[in-house]
Every structure is written in structure tokens, then in C-alpha cells.
Amino acid sequence: MDFTPEATAAALAEAADEAMRRLTPDWTDRFDDGFDRAAWRLLIDCELATMAFPPALGGEGLDVDALGALAARAGRGAVVTPLVGTLVAGALFAGDESAATHWADRAAVRPGRWFAVAVGERGRAPGDPPQVRISGSGPDAKVSGVKTGVCFAEGAAGLIVAGPGTSAVVDPQAPGVRLLRTPSSTGAAEFTVTFDDAPAVTVAGPAGDLYRALQACYADGLLAGALDLTATHVTDRQQFGRAIGAFQAVAQQLADVYVVSRTLNLVATSAAWRLATGRDADEDLATADYWTAAELPAALRTMTHLHGGIGVDLSYPLHRYFSLAKDLARFAGGPSASLDALAGVTVPQTQRMVRACS
């Protein structure tokens, strides 16, 4: 497989890199406003947040493989915004003209507008069949059930709800929608959302898969950014007259983290490419979920250790990276549930039955 980015994806990655370099993050921010408003305004002003939307809604209609580069660059900078949810919404609207027309006034993304994605459910991995119910179709649909880990739901223009076989867009202020804010490691806004026959508009497209793919790209960028930070630290930090990165024990640990980073990059890139080309991405998405849930937090623990005391300083960037990694691990279902989901798509049913009985 040749994963060399196409010209559009490469240009988007370059534009995203240029924009992110303008940011001056406050690493101690606990996001009382829900997320980094300055970063979101920058993404809007640079017209990056709208790239997934169809041209009729002010976007470019880019596919998920190109959008993955944007999500990865946001992750590399540990940027906390509703970017992933908004990109998912844009990609869905680009593939469903009817839903896009219905939500046209809200889909004009501005600094005060964004979209959130409701995928997670209690005790279930993201790849498990959703238990939320979506009845009816088009603008007459109804949604019932509970979604957890819904980032930036309050104030969103719409909630993209992943259901069994279909998806729906719900106004978070509509009757039958209840938001309960829940804790997050970063302090960013996260909610449990209860739907009770909430009015909705169905939208074609795999909302859950798009969300998982772009979250994997974000996690890939997050790990790469933390690795860059750590490599710089162990190069500059002197001990016994030499850089600590020159010691074999440190170099070996950093090499292990590099392997995790390259693996996550490969599987995230592959998942996005498969979705963009209409191929089955179940195995890659399940692998990315597990790698995010199990290996990402472990890699961040190693890098925190290599930093020493500064690694847990709230004013030092690595603390934000570690906090995001813990949140992403929850969104991916946690190590056990994501491993079960991975086995479900990679191990034939007959082998699972034999192993269960042995």
C-alpha cells in the first residue's frame, strides 16, 4: 500500500501546521469555557474547520483520509476544540444532500457554532452495535437512549448520534434531550446525553466509523507531539556531563515509544484510507481503538517518567498530552472492552468458541 498523501491532503496538512504554529496555549487552562476558544476561532478564521462540509455549505467536501491530516496536526499540538466532531458532521452532510439542506442554517460553522458526536455507550466499545434507538426517517425521526463521553455537547449546533445502521442529527436544545456534564482529565466539557423520543433528522453515512477514524488520527498526532517533546528534553537535559538521551536505558524506552507511535500512525492512516476508498475498515478501526486504549496511556507514562518531575508540572505541555491520552483511552472503550472488540473482528467465531470451551 502507498500511503503517500495526495496533493490535497498534503496541502491541508501544511496549512494546518502553519495555523497551529500561531497558537500560544495556556497549558494550565482547565477549560471553564468548555474548550480552547482561541484555538477554535483560529481554525474557523483559517477555514480549516469547514473543510469537510460540501461546497454549498462553505466547505471543500474533503474525504476522511485528507481530514485525518488535519486531526493529526491538532493532536500534535494537543489542541482541545470541537474539531473532530465538526469534521464528522461535515463529512456526513457532504454525503447526504437532504440532511445538509435541512441543517444548512446551523451548518454554517462560525466561532460560536460546532458539532458534537455521540458514539459512546456505557459498558460498550465504540465498535459494538449501538443500543440507542433511531425510529423513523428523514426529518420525522426520533432518538431514544443514552450516550456517554459526548464532548462539547452543550452549545453545539447539533449532535451527531450514531445508531444501529443509521445516524441522526439532534438539536441539543430540543425537547427530550438532557445533558449531564461529567468529569474529564483535561477539564474540557464532556457530557452524558439522554434522549427521550428527541426529534431528529436522519443522515446517511457511518458516523461512528468516521469518528473513530478521526479520533485515531488525533491520537496519532498527540503521541507524535509528546514524542517530539520528550526527544527534545532528553537531548537537552544533561546528567553526569552528557545528555540523558545518550544513556542506553533512556534510549531503549524512547525507542519503544517510537514503535508504538509508528504503529498507531500506520493503523490510523490505513483506517482513514479504507473508509475513504469504500473498503472494509473494521479491523483497522478496532486495532486503532485498542492501541489508543492500551498503548497510548502506557507510552505517555513512559515519557512522563523520562521527563522526571517537570513531566507532572501543570504548566508544562506534557501534562496536557497525558490528560488527553487518558480521555482518549476512555473514548476508545478502555483496554479490556477494546481488546474484546478487536478479537470479535479478527478471530473467526469458530476459533473463539473452541478457545472458550478449552
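^ that was protein a. below is b, sequence first then the C-alpha cells
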Amino acid sequence: MDRDERGEGALGSGVVVWGMVRMGMGEERRLRKAEGGGSLEAQIESLLNVEKQMRLNGDVAGTRKAAIDILQLCFEARAWKTLNDQIVLLSKRRGQLKQAVTAMVQQAMQYIDETPDIETKIELIKTLNSVSAGKIYVEIERARLIKKLARLKEEQGQIAEAADLMQEIAVETFGAMAKTEKLAFILEQVRLCLDRQDYVRAQILSRKISPRVFDADTSKEKKKPKEGESIVEEAPADIPSLLELKRIYYELMIRYVYVSFPFLFFGHLWKHSFFQSPVFVHT
């Protein structure tokens, strides 16, 4: 048997790595388990070597798959600290691909609701937040993470901290975020400011929304974008409809005006045609 038949030669052990990749990282992981593939650390180390080879060769799909497999290993083992460490490690590797970082953040966000306790959940969110900070290609994911963290802070009675967290994000500049998700985020910012009695900040934030936006045609967002334009993502399932957001907006404005100008604009807001509609009357 010559050197080529043995898979040796100029590429050396690299052929073995590429062979594992060709049969699929998932299959390789299953084979390692079937053979008693060692500890979690050993399996992660093996996949880190594969990730490095793929990254240095510019293989986007391979790098993304290896990174996700590492996170999945940690999740299946319920090794939450190791999961956080690997997210940070992978994101900081030299020349790490944007697509791999995006895939890691999106994958790890699915684990948030599976965490065993509130401390572990907050730690995972903070890890993902630090990894996505300053990266435009995961700005929407970071906004969703901040919103989750602010909600947890609010549940713990830390209204001021929740409001400060939400104000870190300016979603009105996110071209790829759905309009309804932007509106819901800004309205949440306004609500938290009102809850902490910061009426000046609440007014500033509310001015980012024009009442006319609630009458716009949302179907325009679904049109195929022109060259150079951002592709607008679908809003998550928990985002209210445009009509519901309109109701929330006017309720928040009534709260603000009632405290700041109780006799000046309250009547004007109440007479708005929306409040005479059956949608508002019956809610």
C-alpha cells in the first residue's frame, strides 16, 4: 500500500480531519460516544481542533457546525459554566467568522429557558450579551437579550436597573428589525421610565414614535428588498399586533399626560377616534 492509499503525505493528519468533516461532525460525535469517547473536555477539545481547521480554511459551514456542536455538547451535559466559557472562547478565536458567532448566539439563546435557576439564566444572558456587544451582525439578538434581562430585573423589583438596561439599545436604527418589534421595544422603554417616574426620559423616548406609524401598511416590510437594503426579519411570536401596540401606546401617553399635564392634553387624547373603536372599548 502506497502513501496515498494510507491517507498520508503532504497533508498528513489534515486528511484525517477532513475525513471526519466529510462524514459529518454529528456522526463523528456519535461514533466517539459509541467508542466511549472520553470526558466532556476531551470531546470539546477534539471539536475545537476541527473548528480551528475549518476556520483557517475559510469553511463557513464547517466552522459554524463545529461551534454549534460544542455548545450542544455542553447543553446536553448541563455544564452551564463550561457552556459560558466555550461561548466566550469561540467568539474570541483569531479570525472567527461572523456567521459562526451569529449561529452560536442564536443557538445559545434557545438554551436560556432551559436553565435550572434564575442565577444560571442571568449568567448565560450576560455572557451572550458581552459576546454580541459592538457587533452589528447580532444587534437584533443583543436587543432581545437585553429585553429578557430587563424583564428578569423587573421581576426582582429592580425597576431602575431594568430601565437603564433597556435604554442602552436604540432599536430605531436597526434596519433589519421588524417594525412591530421596534415599536414594542420602544414602548417597553417608555413603560419602564414611567414606572420609575422618570417622566422626562419617557417623553423623549415616546417622541421616537409617530402616531401615524400605527396606520401604515405592514405588508410593505414583506416585499423583496432592493439591492443594498437590509432584509427585515420576522417579528417573534410574542410581539403584539400593530393594533394592540397602538392601544398600548395611547395608554402610556395617557399615563404620562395625566401626571405631567393633567388638564392640558388629556381631553385631546381621550377624544382620539381610536378610543371610540370597539377594540379599545372591549379591552
